[in-house]
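Q: Okay, next protein. This is DUF3817 domain-containing protein from Salegentibacter chungangensis. I've checked the sequence twice, so it should be correct. Can you predict the 3D structure?
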Amino acid sequence: MSINKKIKVFKWISILEGLSFLILLFLAMPLKYFFDSPEMVRQVGMAHGILFIAYVLGAFLLYNAMNWKWKEMLIILACSLVPFGPFYVEKRYL
């Protein structure tokens, strides 16, 4: 797979992972705790978990191809733990 194709796939994973995290935090969790409706947390949480793993694996796959330094790699991985972080990675490092 070409580097441009890898970057394009990682951008989509990054965007989807960021959106799933925001939906989980700002929609599903309030529904669970304020309205006693945990169903959405289960569904969105599973999707977010899969996307999170794909994001981390994608970052490691791009590490050599993008010539990222370890500091950059740690920032990219840390951004997956922060709301809006994946959007920053997409704009800054891709």
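A: Here is a summary of the prediction. Residues 3-92 form one domain. The chain is about 85% helix and 0% strand.
Q: Noted. On to the next one.
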